[in-house]
UniProtKB/TrEMBL annotation:
This is Apple domain-containing protein. It comes from Adineta steineri. The keyword rRNA-binding does not apply. Residues 1-18 form the signal peptide. PANTHER family: ATP_GTP-BINDING PROTEIN, SENSOR KINASE-RELATED. Residues 13-102 form the Apple domain.
C-alpha cells in the first residue's frame, strides 16, 4: 500500500529550511521518459540527505530514496499518478517531491470498451512495458510462445502504437516469460527471456532505438522447462542477477550478473518442490537480504527461501499449503503495515489467496483472505493503484478473456470487482501503464487465441 506524508521542515547540513515536501512511502518514481532522469547517487544515508541532494540540484523536482542500497535517484519531473510505481521488493523505498499538491482521486473509475487490438506473433504469452526507443513514450515487448519471437510495439503517447509490430527472434523455442533491465549498464533497456522449449535463457541487448543487437547471449537455464524469471540483486553487489524457475526439473537457479550483459554460468540450483511455476522476491524477514517466494503447482506449495546476502540461500525452506495448482505468486504490502505480503493465484480452485507477512519471514493466511475468481486458469495478475486512492488494486487475466479488477481497501482486503473484455481468449500476460499520458494507469493484455494485444484505456472522473 502507498502512503502519503507531507513535511515542511528540511535540515540540510547545518541549515534548516521550511520547504513543502510530499513523501510517498513504499513507492518508486518511474517516468516513462528516461530523459527525465538526472542521476543516481549512492552512499546516501537517509531520506533527508536524498532530499538535500535533490534540493541542491536546480533541475531536480522529484527523487526516489531506497534505504537498502542507500541510493538516491533524481528526476527533472513532477510526480504523476501513473509514474508512482508500487515497490514490491523492499519496503524502504520512498518518493519525495517538492510540492504539497495532492494527486487526484477517481470518483468513478472504468475501462474503455471495446479495447483497441494490435497484431502480434503466434500465441503471445507475456509482455512488459518500457520506453525502448527513448522517445518518452511507453512501448510494449511481447513474447510469442509459438512464434519463437518477441514483438515490439512502439508507443506514440496517445494510447496507440506504430504498425506493424517489429519482430525479433527469441533465440530459443517457446519464450514463456521475460524481464526488462539494463544488464550491460549502457543506458538501454535489455531483455532476459526464459525459453521453455529449449531450456535456455536469452539476453537481448537493447540499442536504445526499439531494436536489439543481432548477437544474442544464450545459456542453459540450469534445468528443464524454464517458466518464470525475475531480475534482482541477490548478493548485494549492486548488479542485476537472474533467478529462474525450472518447472520440469523441480528447481530454481540463480545466475549472478556481471553488469556487462553476461552472467555466471552455470548457475546455482535449489530444489523447489514439484513443478515450480512462478517466483517473486522481497526482504521478507527484514534482515536487508533478498528472499524468494516460489509456488510449486504440482505439490500445492508456497516455498520461502531466505537469502544470506551473498547470492546463496538457506537450506531450511519454509512451506505453506496453497489452493489447487498454484500458478502465480506476487508480492506487495496489501494492508499498509510496511511488511511484505504474498498473493497466490490458484488455477484449479479458481481462487486468489493473500498470505499476510509478519516481517520476520513468516506468513499468515485465512479463509477470509481468499477470493473466488469464478473462472479457471488465472494466468497473470498486475498490481497497481488504479483509482488514485493510494491503495493497491489487482487486475487479473484468465483464459476466457475476462479481465477482473479487484479494488483494494485500507485493511488489505479487496472488493468492488469489475470485469472487462479483452476481445479475445487465452488472455495471458497483463501489464498496467499509462499509455495515453493522461496520468491514469491503463491496461494491456495478450490474447493468445487471436494473436493480439488489447489496449484498454482508463476512464477516471
Amino acid at each position: 500500500m502507498l502512503s502519503q506524508v507531507t513535511l515542511i521542515l528540511l535540515v540540510c547540513c547545518l541549515s534548516t529550511s521550511t520547504i513543502p515536501i510530499t513523501i510517498y512511502k513504499n513507492a518508486q518514481f518511474v517516468p516513462t521518459n528516461t530523459n527525465l532522469k538526472l542521476a543516481d547517487q549512492f552512499s546516501i544515508n537517509s531520506l533527508n540527505e536524498c532530499a538535500c541532494q535533490c534540493l541542491n540540484n536546480s533541475q531536480c523536482l522529484t527523487a526516489t530514496y531506497i534505504g537498502i542500497n542507500k541510493s538516491c535517484s533524481m528526476f527533472s519531473a513532477q510526480v504523476k499518478r501513473s509514474w508512482l510505481q508500487i515497490q514490491t521488493t523492499i519496503m524502504d523505498a520512498s518518493v519525495l517531491t517538492f510540492s504539497n499538491e495532492s494527486l487526484p482521486v477517481c470518483s468513478t473509475y472504468n475501462f474503455q470498451q471495446p479495447p483497441q487490438l494490435y497484431t502480434t506473433g503466434a500465441l503471445p504469452a507475456v509482455m512488459i512495458s518500457a520506453d525502448l526507443n527513448k522517445d518518452g513514450h511507453v512501448d510494449l515487448a511481447i513474447g510469442n510462445y509459438n512464434g519463437n519471437s518477441i514483438s515490439i510495439l512502439l508507443g506514440i503517447g496517445n494510447g496507440s502504437f506504430q504498425l506493424p509490430a517489429i519482430s525479433f527472434p527469441s533465440n530459443g523455442s517457446n519464450p514463456y516469460w521475460f524481464v526488462a533491465h539494463d544488464f550491460n549498464n549502457d543506458g538501454n533497456i535489455d531483455l532476459a527471456i526464459c525459453n521453455e522449449g529449449s531450456n535456455t535463457i536469452s539476453i537481448l541487448l537493447g540499442l536504445g532505438n526499439g531494436s536489439f543487437q543481432l548477437s544474442v547471449i544464450t545459456f542453459n537455464s540450469g534445468g528443464s522447462a524454464p517458466s518464470s524469471i525475475i531480475v534482482v540483486d541477490v548478493n548485494n553487489d549492486y548488479k542485476a542477477d537472474l533467478v529462474v524457475t525450472n518447472t520440469g526439473s523441480y528447481t530454481i537457479t540463480i545466475f549472478l550478473g556481471f553488469n556487462n550483459g553476461t552472467f555466471q554460468v552455470p548457475g546455482t540450483s535449489y530444489a523447489a518442490g514439484s513443478s515450480p511455476s512462478s517466483i517473486t522476491s522481497g526482504d521478507f524477514n527484514s534482515d536487508g537480504n533478498i528472499d524468494l517466494a516460489v509456488v510449486s503447482r504440482n505439490s500445492n506449495q508456497l516455498l520461502i527461501f531466505r537469502g544470506v546476502g551473498n547470492g546463496t540461500f538457506q537450506t531450511n525452506v519454509t512451506s505453506y499449503t496453497t489452493g489447487s495448482v498454484p500458478y502465480l505468486v506476487r508480492t506487495a504490502d496489501f494492508n499498509g503495515d510496511s511488511k511484505l505480503d504474498l498473493l497466490v493465484a490458484n488455477s484449479y480452485s479458481n481462487t486468489i489467496s493473500i498470505f499476510t507477512g509478519t516481517g520476520v519471514g513468516t506468513f499468515v493466511t485465512s479463509a477470509s483472505a481468499t477470493y473466488t475468481t469464478g473462472i479457471a486458469n488465472t494466468f497473470d495478475i498486475a498490481i497497481q493503484d488504479l483509482n488514485g486512492d493510494l491503495i493497491m488494486d489487482l487486475a487479473v487475466s484468465n483464459q476466457y478473456g475476462n479481465i477482473s479488477v479487484y479494488f483494494g481497501y485500507q485493511n488489505g482486503t479487496f472488493g468492488g470487482i469489475k470485469s472487462y473484455s479483452s476481445a479475445g481468449q487465452l488472455s495471458k500476460g497483463i501489464t498496467i501503464t499509462d499509455f495515453n499520458e493522461d496520468g491514469r494507469p491503463d491496461l494491456a493484455i495478450a490474447n493468445g487465441n487471436s494473436n493480439t494485444v488489447a489496449i484498454i484505456l482508463a476512464l477516471c472522473t
